[in-house]
Amino acid sequence: MFDLTFTVDAQDATTPLTLAIDQAVIAGWTGRDPVARDKHIAELEAVGIARPASTPIYYRVSARRLTMEDSIECCGGDSSGEVEFVLIGWQGRIFVGCGSDHTDRKVEAYNVTVSKQMCDKVVAPTLWELEEVVNHWDKMILRSYAWIKGERVLYQEGTLDAMLPVDELIARGFDGKKLPDGCAMFGGTFAAKGGIRPADRFEFELEDPVLKRAIRHAYDVTTLPVLG
Q1: N or C end of the chain: smaller count of CB under 10 Å?
Q2: In tens digits, what is the pLDDT along the chain, a chain of 228 residues?
Q3: Range of the domain at 20
Q4: Structural domain tally of the chain?
Q5: Record's superkingdom (predicted)?
Q6: 226, 76 Cβ separation under 8 angstroms
Q7: How far is CA 99 from CA 34, 86, 187, in A?
């Protein structure tokens, strides 16, 4: 267990909140459209990435992989970020944030679970109360930009109506129970425009077009040498 201090951005005030995080979960294959999901699974199988054991699937990673830093270090040049909403349970409440499930793609080709553990998971320092956004959840937008060879490009973008509803996502991941206190769960992502590829810097955001606000964060990626 370790502490992360966030700023809770309510509609009328901002408040610091320190949360003790003891569990981190990366949810995958969380799309609502089963036809599109199965097509993508088949595409990945064709290039050697194994079919997931279930859809959705919930990977456990070390909670200490979560960080708010503005830079991370990764072994080799085969990792990349992906924007996701993040749900955190605390004292019976659920907070919504935004993060990047940075993943080693070379390792992912032979073991997805191991690949999830290879890289830090960067989270933005701002949270919203779920109850403030749940009624317009499907209208919210996930978006990311990647800096590749000195150029900032739109990397991912989509609205949350393409993903499983929050209640279903939580229920299926925790046997019909509530999100546990101290659990941070990443909720899935969208395909990368132009394909998955590494970047020197990754920017990510969750936009609320109804309440006219956004959660944003960014980080640099330092590549460490692989010597064998």
Answers
A1: C
A2: 789 999 999 977 899 999 999 999 999 999 998 887 887 777 677 767 788 889 999 999 999 999 999 999 999 999 999 999 999 999 999 999 999 999 998 998 889 999 999 999 999 999 999 999 999 999 999 999 999 999 999 999 999 999 999 999 999 999 999 999 999 999 999 888 998 899 999 999 999 999 999 999 999 999 999 997
A3: 2-224
A4: 1
A5: Bacteria
A6: yes
A7: 25, 6, 10
Main-chain phi, psi angles of 161, to 5 degrees = -70, -10
Contacts of 76 (CB under 8 A, 6+ apart): 104, 106, 223, 224, 225, 226
User: Would you state the structure tokens that stand for residue 30, as one six-digit string?
Assistant: 């969380």
CA dist 205 and 98 (Å) reads 6
Let me know: does 113 contact 78? Beta carbons within 8 Å: no
Two structure tokens written together for 130: 């779920």
90: amino acid identity, one letter: W
Going by DSSP bridges, is the β-strand pair 79-80/103-104 parallel, antiparallel, or unpaired? Answer: antiparallel
CATH number of the CATH domain containing 55 = 3.90.850.10
Q: Which two tokens stand for residue 100?
A: 């990047």
Q: Which of 196, 188, 182 is nearest to 55 (CA)?
A: 188
